[in-house]
Specification:
The protein is α+β, with helices and mostly antiparallel strands and about 220 residues long. The chain has 5 helices and 12 strands. Strand 8 and strand 9 form a beta hairpin. It binds N-(4-oxo-1,4-dihydrocinnoline-3-carbonyl)glycine and fe (ii) ion.
Length: about 220
C-alpha cells in the first residue's frame, strides 16, 4: 500500500522516521510507492498532456565554456537535453502536480520538526521552489555531474518524484547517480514510477542523470532553509 494513501498514521510516522535516519546516515533517502498507482497515474497523465501541448521549454544549456565560446548547443553536443516546465500553485490543468507538492510538503515539514531528527533539526524549512516538471526525451539525453546548490543559495533539500512505469535501466538508462562526498560510494537510483527521493542539495551530493533512451519524466521541488 502507498504511504500517503493508506491514511494510517503509523505508516506515516514510520516513513518519516526512515527518511530522518536515511538523511542523517546517507544524505539521501528513497521512498517507493509514495502515492499509489491511481494517484501516480493521474499525475503522469497530467504531465503527459502538458508535454504534448508543447508547454515545456528546453532546459537552458549549461555550459562552463568561456562566455564567448560557441554555445555547446550550437556545436550540437549540448550538455543537457531536458525540457522543463515550472508549475506554481494551483493553476488550471496542474491540480495533480499541485496535490503531489502538497504531499511532499507535509513530509518535509514533518521530518523537519520531529524530535531526534539529527541534522534535519539544524534547518528551519518554511518554503520551497515551485515544482519543476522535467522530461528527458530519450535519445541519450542526460545531465552532467553537478551540484544543485553549489553556492549557498538557501536550498537545502532536493525532492524528486518519478513517473516512469516499468522503467528498466538496463535498456533505458536514465539512472540518477549520486556520488555523496566525502566518501567513495555511489547511489544508483532508477527513476521508477511513484518513487520519491530526497537528498541534500549542496556540495554533499554531486549527481548526474545518465543518458536516457526512453522518455523520462520527473518532478522536482527544492526546499529552502
Ligand atoms: O532527474 C533526476 O533524476 C535528477 N535531475 C537533476 O539532478 C537535475 N538537476 N537540476 C536541474 C536543473 C534544471 C533542469 C533540470 C535539472 C535536473 O534534471
Ligand atoms: Fe540536480
Amino acid at each position: 500500500a502507498s504511504f500517503m494513501g493508506s491514511g494510517s498514521e503509523r505508516r506515516y510516522e514510520d516513513l518519516c522516521r526512515n527518511i530522518i535516519n536515511d538523511m542523517n546516515q546517507y544524505g539521501l533517502s528513497v521512498v517507493d510507492d509514495f502515492l499509489g498507482m491511481e494517484t501516480g497515474l493521474k499525475i503522469l497523465n497530467e504531465v503527459r498532456s502538458m508535454y504534448n501541448a508543447g508547454a515545456f521549454q528546453d532546459g537552458q544549456v549549461v555550459t562552463n565554456q568561456m562566455p564567448d565560446a560557441p554555445s555547446t548547443a550550437a556545436r550540437g553536443d549540448n550538455i543537457r537535453g531536458d525540457k522543463i516546465k515550472w508549475v506554481g500553485g494551483n493553476e488550471p490543468g496542474c491540480s495533480n502536480v499541485w496535490y503531489l507538492t502538497n504531499q511532499i510538503d507535509s513530509v518535509v515539514y514533518r521530518v523537519n520538526t520531529m524530535k531526534d531528527n539529527g541534522i534535519l533539526g539544524n534547518y528551519h524549512i518554511r518554503e520551497r521552489t515551485r515544482a519543476m516538471v522535467a522530461c528527458y526525451p530519450g535519445f541519450g539525453t542526460h545531465y552532467v555531474m553537478h551540484v544543485d546548490n553549489p553556492k549557498k543559495d538557501g536550498r537545502v533539500i532536493t525532492a524528486i518524484y518519478y513517473l516512469n512505469i516499468n522503467w528498466d535501466a538496463r535498456e533505458s538508462g536514465g539512472i540518477l547517480r549520486i556520488r555523496p562526498t566525502p566518501g567513495t560510494t555511489v547511489a544508483d537510483i532508477e527513476p521508477k514510477f511513484d518513487r520519491l527521493i530526497f537528498f541534500w542539495s549542496d556540495i554533499r551530493n554531486p549527481h548526474e542523470v545518465q543518458p536516457a533512451h526512453r522518455t523520462r519524466y520527473a518532478i522536482t521541488v527544492w526546499y529552502f532553509d
